[in-house]
Amino acid sequence: MKALLLGFAALVATPVTAQTPGSPQSSTLRGGTFAITGGTVAIGDGSAPIQNGTVVFRDGRIVAAGQGIAVPAGATVIDAAGKWVAAGMVAGFSDLGLLDVNGVEESNDSAARTSPFAAAIDIAPAINPQAVMIDNERLGGITRAIVTPSSAGSIFAGQGAVIDLGADADPITRARAFQFVELGENGASDAGGSRPAAYAMLRDAFAQAQDYRRNPAGFGGREKDSLLKRGDAIALGDVLDGKTRLLVHVERASDIRSVLALKQDFPKLDLVLVGAAEGWMVARDIAAARVPVIAGALADLPAKFESLAATESNVGRMEAAGVTVALSTVGANTAPGDHVVRQYAGNLVGIAKVPGSSGLDWGHAFAAITSGPAQAIGMDGDIGSLRAGRRADVVIWDGDPLELSSAPVAVYIDGRAHPMTSRQTQLRDRYMTPSEGALPKAYEH
Amino acid sequence: MTDRRTRLKGIRLSTALAMGLALAACGAANDRPESASSKDTSATAVAARRYARDPYPSTYHAYPGVPTVVRNVTIFDGEGARIDNGEALFADGKIVAVGQRVDAPAGATVIDGTGRYLTPGIIDIHSHLGDYPSPAVRANSDGNEATSPVTADVWAEHSVWPQDPGFGRALANGGVTTLQILPGSANLFGGRSVVLKNVYARTTQGMKFPGAPYGLKMACGENPKRVYGAKGREPSTRMGNIAVDRQTWAKARAYDRKWTKYEKEGGDPPDRDIGMDTLRGVLDGEILVHNHCYRADEMANVIDMAKEFGYHVTAFHHAVEAYKIADLLKANGVCAAVWADWYGFKMESFDGIGANLALLQNAGTCAMIHSDDENGIQRLNQEVAKVLSSARHAGIDISDATAWEWLSYNPAKALGIADRTGSLKPGKMADVVLWNGYPFSVYTRPEKVWIDGALLYDANNPKLRPVSDFELGLPGAGDVK
Description:
The structure holds 2 protein chains of 2 kinds.
Chain A: E1 18-19, E2 33-42, E3 50-58, E4 61-66, E5 76-79, E6 84-87, E7 89-94, H1 132-139, E8 142-147, E9 156-164, E10 172-182, H2 185-190, H3 195-214, H4 230-240, E11 245-250, H5 253-265, E12 271-275, H6 283-288, E13 293-295, H7 314-320, E14 325-327, H8 341-351, H9 362-367, H10 371-376, E15 394-397, E16 408-413, E17 416-418, H11 423-430
Parallel strand pairs in A: 1-5, 2-5, 2-6, 7-8, 10-11, 11-12, 12-13, 13-14
Antiparallel strand pairs in A: 2-3, 3-4, 6-15, 8-9, 9-10, 15-16, 16-17
Helix pairs in contact in A: 3-4
Chain B: H1 12-19, H2 43-49, E1 68-76, E2 82-91, E3 94-99, E4 109-112, E5 117-120, E6 122-127, H3 165-172, E7 176-181, E8 189-192, E9 194-197, E10 215-219, H4 222-229, H5 238-265, H6 274-283, E11 288-293, H7 296-309, E12 313-318, H8 326-331, E13 335-338, H9 356-362, E14 367-369, H10 380-393, H11 400-403, H12 409-415, E15 432-435, E16 446-451, E17 454-458
Parallel strand pairs in B: 1-4, 1-5, 6-7, 10-11, 11-12, 12-13, 13-14
Antiparallel strand pairs in B: 1-2, 2-3, 5-15, 7-9, 8-10, 15-16, 16-17
Organism (chain A): Sphingomonas oligophenolica
Domain Amidohydrolase (chain A): 306-416
Protein name (chain A): Amidohydrolase
């Protein structure tokens, strides 16, 4: 968030004046000190909401959040009485910025069917911060997103990134934040038709990455028919060293066990499970391996043979077994937008009172869509909560952020307020009265 | 046909197309009634010349219930009324009385509804359960007969797999008591729909809503032109869509004339055309048109086409841009069935907004929520809650009780069954949900669901949670593990 705001009038705030959240005056340049007072504070670290709390941030970073926090001298004070002040949500597994319209192939950079490259693919340069969905999802309360490529022609999809959803020209929080690989039904298909073929591809790729490390000069990887390109070998070397996390999509319990077993042969692998619909059946193993899970939350149908044991209680059971769980739209319909994760989290709170179901308490449910995804990719020291030192990604809501009746009234990213309008709000306003007036609708803007 | 954005899942349509199942479309089997004598215009003779309108009749039967009164409960009656601290009585499968106080017979089961809400069962007008069941493997992919743009001859009920685990989830998590199963949207004329009670049975006939009118699934827009354009045939454009539609309706008019004349006057019976039977049913007002259509301009074209050929569109489904022509829909008596907030997954959904349904209601247009999704059907009350939030944040005041019309009464009307279900009025089917809290909260779930007065889901009784054959003995059985 270093660049200038685009299409948004950033005004220098006046110190020690109370402001209304979302008002133009509460937009800030970096460098100021801000205190949001009087709201219910949701830190995002698993703790329960704090009544009448204060959130202080300075120079784009959180200074403090909680009760009894002193407002620093000279701070701009934003009154949030009757509102909630919450950590911005982190989309756990998304394609934000990677496409404009999923079904419009020309606009979609999520997968490359005929590319000779796989693990080498780095999505960061393709991220478009002006994609329409970015504004829409920021207005839904998402401030950061873990963006992943999709696989095509290889089990390796490539390297994903972490982005912010600000209205500016600098979306990348971390490029090459992880490698993504498919090892379930999708992986079988990507590898030519079977899980054994997927594992053969994985092990051969790892072996070649080691070959490259031992003797880069002797490694080919530029021949037309080479199984692994040089760039892929370099990317996978970082995975084998544990420098780059490996996100693995599997759903079936036995697939999860097979993935966890990879650590025996490749001990430095820094694994993250994605999906894990049957994770509850092997939750103790996952917890013992200290492997976090980016889960699909509400999947409860035997949608595939690899997810016959899918249950809404999956996340609750994994969490109870000690697994670090984040929620995402993995495997789910994302047509409602990635901010649907708050609905998932709310449902997990709701099912906690349904006999026989396992859910989450509010604090853990909210953490699963804020610090949880950040923790899964090792960035919870930087993003995902209102704990001191984190980037000041703060959303002021007009009610409980997990409740469907609530909406954000102000969104701060890196301590700066961002616009609360989108193409969707403009369409809504244009058609508030559907019939044409003195001029066609095209003149209403 | 669902063709939304899905992470890590293939688009089902492509799966269906990959199958490339052969079909002899528009089979022209002769079905000549034998007892019809020529020129005999008596009612008996006319009836004898009619082909069967209901050859796969419902065998659904209501399961036993007990007279039940729910007290101290907040009621949305489905027709816009709210009763705080009210009471409702149902017995013999029917609603008996709903009000502040009702007279309950001695021996009636009494349920304390303190802190709870009582509503009509949810009706989903757009589902593919059974036709695209779980597991979503190719062998089960039976929702799109994507071998010809005109397959009015297929009937969704002949694809429905009554063991789809999705029915049980829609009941237990969603409080869905009635649903319409539609063919997919690959084709301009997708085929006949079927309306089901959400009660497991061994056969699809055993789930069929007795006496519900049939529907005809039609589709505008990207899907038909993409599917058939890719095969190098008409339609490959939107104008091609309308051209094939019009040609087909023109044939249907001729078919209707021939058969109507024959049925009235006798003579040589015309050839039967199973697809044309369905279109004739539309022209005669017996079969309701449910038209998948996203864009405002295309809906306007369809409305004119319906006038040209003398039929009525009951509802546009998906109707992402309905908010742009709310006045036009209202003036033509056409309903819109929509998602709460789906947008941007394909070009024709690019203008989707969360306030769509709110703006329709605000304009006085008939509107309702729908799922088109085996997961969304489990949370339609939450989808409406999102719409209410969009409405209120746009300054549009819609009451909770009015919003419930989108979940039961309006879809019942659009399915032609509002005289039997969809609201808590005396004499109607006792299709009722008791929610464990405010039903527009994300934290609320069904506690009990009755269909025709029979308690078929009870959150407090694991035995009253259905487990389909498919799930039996599998680790996911009924999601009750």
